[in-house]
Amino acid sequence: MMLLQAFVTALQLLTRIPLSIPGHDPDRQAKVAGYAVLFYPVVGVLIGALLVLLLGLLQPVWQSEASLLHAGLLLTGWVIVTGALHLDGLADSADAWLGGFGDRERTLAIMKDSYAGPAGVTAIMVILLLKFAALSELSWTLWPALLVIPVLARLQVVLLFLTTAYVRPGGMGASATEHLPRKTAWAWLLLIAVAVITLIESGWMLIVAMGLVFVVLRAIMQQRLGGTTGDTAGALIEITEAVLLCLIVLST
């Protein structure tokens, strides 16, 4: 029952898919939050599958002159499924990075501000433009990449919570990092990485790029915050997706 609760929690955190289960136990919420992290890549599979389904529906006319419109529809579906949750984290992170002036407490305070500043709006525009441009060049033959990219982006958060302190005390993020089953999570990371390299064409390239993005962004988080927050985790997801999408298109 707890694993089912963990899966539903992950789905509720990472998407706008309306799903809930009866009998939720508040006393186990902290432990459920930790186990939910293990299901982040599984939620990525669901997101990727929905994107591939939409791509398949558009595929008969994908290479027509309306391909830009189809890319826009695919990107819109992507944003709707995720509820723009990670874009919000990206915007908050960009505003905080620019406006924090290197001060940790000021940076954290800006992240709490619900209003998006110029840096946040610009970051969202850049990421969406990169995704849109990449999707407009994406052929049906590359559907495995579209399936796996949301998985790898959410796998980044598993790695982030394994290796990086959560800087805000209390809340679900702190509970998730504290109660994450670490040995299982490391095994899960290794299994998914091996599967991607083995089963996906150019999978090794995706794993290497994913690792580079992680190292760079984690270093920025450590330098500025001394750890991570939910907002920076969302930014990591969005940037990873954009980089991997562009890489796949450029490599073909």
Describe this structure in words.
Pathway: Cofactor biosynthesis; adenosylcobalamin biosynthesis; adenosylcobalamin from cob(II)yrinate a,c-diamide: step 7/7. It is a multi-pass membrane protein. One of its GO terms (molecular function) is adenosylcobinamide-GDP ribazoletransferase activity. Belongs to the CobS family. The chain has 252 residues and is mostly helical. The chain has one domain. Helices cover 77% and strands 0% of the residues. It contains twelve helices and no strands. The longest helix has 22 residues. The radius of gyration is 18 Å and the shape is globular.
Please, what is the average pLDDT?
A: 90
Helical stretch count? 12
Largest sheet: none
The poorly predicted ranges are none
Radius of gyration: 18 Å
The number of domains is 1
Which structural class best describes the helix and strand composition? mainly alpha
Please give the number of β-strands. Answer: 0
Share in β-strands: under 5%
How helical, in percent, are the residues?
over 70%
Which key phrases capture this entry?
mainly alpha, single chain, 252 residues
Would you summarize the structure shown here?
This protein is an all-alpha fold.
List the helices and strands and how they pair.
Blueprint: H1 2-14, H2 29-38, H3 40-58, H4 67-82, H5 85-99, H6 104-112, H7 118-136, H8 143-163, H9 171-179, H10 182-199, H11 203-224, H12 230-251
Helix pairs in contact: 1-2, 2-9, 3-4, 3-8, 4-7, 5-6, 5-7, 5-12, 7-12, 8-10, 8-11, 8-12, 10-11, 11-12
